[in-house]
Amino acid sequence: MERSVLSSRTALAALTVTAALAVTACGGGGDPLAGGGSGQSGGAPAETIVVGSANFPENQILAEIYAQALQAKGVTVEKRLNIGSRETYFPGLEDGSIDLIPDYTGVLLQFVKPDATEKEPDAVYTALQGALPEALTVLERSEAENKDAIVVTRETATRLNATTIEDLAPNCGQLVFGGPPEFQTRPDGIPGVAATYGCTFAEYRALDAGGPLTVGALTNGDVQAADLFTTDPSLEANGFVALEDSKNNFAAQNVVPLMTKAKATPEVTAALNAVSAQLTTEELIALNTEASSDTKPNPETVAKNWLEGKGLL
Description:
CATH class of the largest domain: Alpha Beta
Mean pLDDT: 88
Helix content: 40-55%
Radius of gyration: 19 Å
CATH topology of the largest domain: D-Maltodextrin-Binding Protein, domain 2
CATH architecture of the largest domain: 3-Layer(aba) Sandwich
Largest sheet: 5 strands, mixed
Number of domains: 2
Structural class: alpha/beta
CATH superfamily of the largest domain: Periplasmic binding protein-like II
Number of strands: 10
């Protein structure tokens, strides 16, 4: 039954990818999952690691860190960054058009196994190892964790006397919520918040994944609550309040390399595990802070600075 559910969801995700890429083609843009080369279906030559990323800055920085760490070991790398949400890039991992992407353990587990109940870091990681499709694997998880959070302004938190999501619940019907489109349907997104806390928002506005649209909408009052990431420096910069998830709706979300099992050679595995060994939540916040500084360095530069500082280049 579980395999059937996964197959159905993968098929649906593939249709979503097809539609999204058709729109891209109509707009004259490139297909982030397209690539030349031979070897696996739609992918690069067997000796090349195709590194992808989701469509938010932190994940792009992590993808650059993975790519540069591998290149430093002489591995041939091709980058296809800013692909989109998990619903978009996961089929690319399955069909071989990408080989490696930074992911987060809890949300990845719920994607491949929607009825997963594990919450703690080790339990989530162990369950994830057993739930992935046969062709995929995760390498060692890092201590670094970036979780979704229900965030409100300081004014809203004070007015509603809310420090936890549970405190917010009686007032959810009066609030407009903003977040990425996928958060509206993911098991630990709006459905999970409703089931866990009895919190049903008045309206959902699809914005971006922890980006400027969401931050701006929360700041100017277009939404009164939003999904932002716990490692986002905008929380502190704007005085936002990340409400405590007292009933553990959101599982552990440790950063982990997700990749094609056939390309997880000892050399590749060692290089990526060395990155995970040095990556902490504080490091993630620092990376995001650097990327959002006045100089606005690109993800490649931020990644290089971090790797050099850790002696990994």
